[in-house]
C-alpha cells in the first residue's frame, strides 16, 4: 500500500481519524482506519459498494458514532459529539440521496441551513435575519443557483438538487465539507458542472473529503486518494498511483478501468 510522502510529518492536521472502527454486531463496517487531512486539501475516497465509505462519513459527522477510535477536528475530540454539534464545530456534509424540503423554495431551503447550521437555536425567532440572507445569497451564487432561488425545490432537476445540497452545506460556513457521491446519476456535462463548482469551493479555502465512484471526478479533483475495501484502507496516496497498485486494480478498478484511468491521468498531466 502506497502512503503519501510526508504524511507522518503533516503538522496540525485539520482532521485526524485514529484507529476508527464501526461495528454492527459482528460486522466491522469500518475497521481500525486511520487517516489525516490537512487544511485546504481534497481527499478522495473510493472503493466497492459496502466498503465502509459512507459509514466513515457517518462516524465523522456524528450520525452513527464510531464504536472505537478517535476523531479529532481542529485539535478537539469530536468522536462522541451529536450531529448538530459537529456541524456547529465546522463540518458539513451532503448525501447520496437528494435531501431537501420539496414544498419550500430553493432560497428557503438554504435559509434553514444558514439559520440552524451555525449555532444552537434554543428559541428560534420568527425571522431568519439579514445575516442569514447574506449567507444564502453567497451560497447560491457559489453553486450557480442564484437565479433559481424562487423555484420550488421538488421541481428541480437532479443536478440542481445536488447543487442545492451543496449550497445548504456551504451556508453553515464549514471548514470541512464531506461530499458523498456528488455526481452519482449525472451525465458527463452535469459532472463537469459539479466539478467546476467543487473547484470554486476549494478556491474559498474549504477542505473537502469526497466519496465518488466516477473515477475521472475523483482523480481530477483529489490531492490524495484513499481506497477502502471491507472497511479497511487498502491504498492511500496520489491519484496517479492508483493504476499501478495491484491490489486496487484487482479488488476495485479492474484491468479495463485501470487502463482508461491511466490514459486519463496522462491527458491531465500533459
From TrEMBL:
Single GO molecular function: L-phenylalanine transmembrane transporter activity
One GO CC annotation: plasma membrane
Record's keyword annotation contains Transport: yes
GO biological process: D-alanine transmembrane transport; L-alanine transport; L-isoleucine import across plasma membrane; L-valine import across plasma membrane
Pfam families: ABC_tran (PF00005)
Keyword Transcription tagged: no
Keywords of this entry: ATP-binding, Nucleotide-binding, Transport
Signal peptide: none
UniProt xrefs under InterPro entries: AAA+_ATPase, ABC_AA/LPS_Transport, ABC_transporter-like_ATP-bd, P-loop_NTPase
Entry-linked PROSITE patterns: ABC_TRANSPORTER_2
Domain ABC transporter, residue spans: 15-255
SUPFAM superfamilies referenced in this protein's UniProt entry, alphabetically: P-loop containing nucleoside triphosphate hydrolases
Domain of life: Bacteria
PANTHER family registered for this protein in UniProt: AMINO ACID ABC TRANSPORTER ATP-BINDING PROTEIN (PTHR45772:SF7), CONSERVED COMPONENT OF ABC TRANSPORTER FOR NATURAL AMINO ACIDS-RELATED (PTHR45772)
Name of the protein: Amino acid/amide ABC transporter ATP-binding protein 1 (HAAT family)
Species assigned in the record: Dongia mobilis
Amino acid at each position: 500500500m502506497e502512503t503519501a510522502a510526508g504524511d507522518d510529518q503533516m503538522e496540525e492536521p485539520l482532521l485526524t481519524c485514529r484507529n476508527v472502527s464501526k461495528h454492527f454486531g459482528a460486522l466491522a463496517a469500518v475497521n481500525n482506519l486511520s487517516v489525516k487531512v490537512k487544511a485546504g486539501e481534497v481527499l478522495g475516497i473510493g472503493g466497492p459498494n459496502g466498503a465502509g465509505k459512507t459509514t466513515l462519513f457517518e462516524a465523522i459527522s456524528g450520525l452513527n458514532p464510531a464504536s472505537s477510535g478517535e476523531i479529532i477536528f481542529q485539535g478537539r475530540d469530536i468522536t462522541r459529539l451529536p450531529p448538530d454539534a459537529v456541524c456547529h464545530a465546522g463540518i458539513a456534509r451532503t448525501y447520496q440521496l437528494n435531501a431537501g424540503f420539496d414544498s419550500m423554495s430553493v432560497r428557503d431551503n438554504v435559509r434553514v441551513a444558514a439559520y440552524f447550521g451555525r449555532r444552537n437555536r434554543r428559541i428560534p425567532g420568527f425571522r431568519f435575519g439579514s445575516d442569514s440572507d447574506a449567507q444564502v445569497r453567497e451560497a447560491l451564487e457559489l453553486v450557480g443557483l442564484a437565479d433559481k432561488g424562487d423555484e420550488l425545490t421538488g421541481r428541480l432537476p437532479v443536478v440542481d438538487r445536488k447543487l442545492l445540497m451543496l449550497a445548504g452545506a456551504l451556508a453553515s460556513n464549514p471548514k470541512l465539507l464531506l461530499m458523498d457521491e456528488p455526481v452519482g446519476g449525472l451525465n458527463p456535462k452535469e459532472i463537469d458542472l459539479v466539478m467546476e463548482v467543487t473547484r470554486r469551493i476549494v478556491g474559498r479555502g474549504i477542505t473537502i473529503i469526497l466519496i465518488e465512484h466516477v473515477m475521472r471526478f475523483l482523480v481530477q479533483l483529489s490531492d490524495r486518494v484513499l481506497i477502502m475495501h471491507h472497511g479497511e484502507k487498502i491504498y492511500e496516496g496520489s491519484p496517479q498511483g492508483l493504476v499501478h497498485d495491484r491490489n486496487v486494480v484487482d479488488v476495485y478498478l479492474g484491468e479495463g478501468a485501470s487502463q482508461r484511468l491511466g490514459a486519463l491521468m496522462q491527458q491531465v498531466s500533459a
